[in-house]
C-alpha cells in the first residue's frame, strides 16, 4: 500500500512537470519508466524505492453522484458512514481536458473559458477543480466528462481557473433540452475524500459568444433540473466566456 502511494506521488510529480511552463522537467519520463517494474511486481517488490518521496495521503475521489450517498451533512466534519474507509473507488484525477474536435462545414464548436467562481469561503477550498459534463433531460451524458486541473489561485471570494473547455460535440448535434453542467469539487481532509460543493449549468439558449455569469446551486447535483436550490442568497456566480467556432 505504501509503495502504491509513493507511485501515486511520482505520477502527481510527473503530471505537475507536464503542466509546468518552466523548461526544467522536475520529474522526467525516464524517471517514470523506472516505476514500471515496481508496478508489475507490486506484490513481491521489497527493494528500496528509487525516489525519495512521501506517499500521497490516502484520498477517496468519488465518481459523479457517489458522494450524494455519503455526505448530506456538509458541516458535519466528523465524516459520514464509511467516508474515510481505505477501500477507495476508482480515482478520477483532476485534469482530464480534451482537445477541440475537428471542424465540419456548417457546424459550430463551442469553447468555454472557465474564468472564476465566487464563493464566500473561497480561500478554504483545498485542491478545487470543476467537472464539466453535457447531459440530456434525463441526466444521460452526451459527451465525455472532463475535469479541469486544480485552480490557479484563490483570491478574496474567488477561485480563479482561467481554463478552456472544448465541448466534445457540435452545437447543432446537441439534443433539445440538453445542458452543460459545472460541478465545483474540493478535497475535505477530515472526511478524506473529494466532495462536490455546488454546481451550475448552462442551457442551450444561453450558448452565445461572450461573457456569461451563471448561478450556483446546492448539491447534490440535479442533472434533471427538477429540484433546484440556490447555494446562497448572496450574489455568487460562475464566470464563463464562450467562443463559437464555425467553419
Can you describe this structure?
The chain has a domain at 116-246: C2 domain (Immunoglobulin-like, Sandwich). It contains 3 helices and 11 strands; from the N terminus they run H-H-H-E-E-E-E-E-E-E-E-E-E-E. The chain has helices at 2-19, 29-33, 36-40, and strands at 60-61, 108-118, 126-135, 146-147, 153-155, 158-166, 179-188, 193-203, 210-215, 217-218, 237-246. A hairpin with a 4-residue loop joins strand 7 and strand 8. The chain is globular. The termini are far apart. Mean pLDDT is 82; it is low at 67-93.
Using brief descriptors, characterize the structure shown.
single chain; AIDA_N_sf; AIDA_N; 247 residues; Immunoglobulin-like; 6-stranded mixed beta sheet; Axin interactor, dorsalization-associated protein; 5-stranded antiparallel beta sheet; 3 helices; globular; developmental protein; mainly beta; phosphatidylinositol binding
Beta strand %: 25-35%
**Count of DSSP helices?**
3
CATH topology (level 3) name of the domain at 116-246: Immunoglobulin-like
From N to C, what is the helix and strand string? HHHEEEEEEEEEEE
Principal-axes shape call: globular
What radius of gyration results from the CA coordinates?
Answer: 20 Å
Task: Chart the SSEs and their pairings.
Layout: H1 2-19, H2 29-33, H3 36-40, E1 60-61, E2 108-118, E3 126-135, E4 146-147, E5 153-155, E6 158-166, E7 179-188, E8 193-203, E9 210-215, E10 217-218, E11 237-246
Parallel strand pairs: 1-8
Antiparallel strand pairs: 2-6, 2-11, 3-4, 3-7, 5-6, 7-8, 8-10, 9-11
Function: Acts as a ventralizing factor during embryogenesis. Inhibits axin-mediated JNK activation by binding axin and disrupting axin homodimerization. This in turn antagonizes a Wnt/beta-catenin-independent dorsalization pathway activated by AXIN/JNK-signaling.
Pfam families: Aida_C2, Aida_N
Keywords: Developmental protein
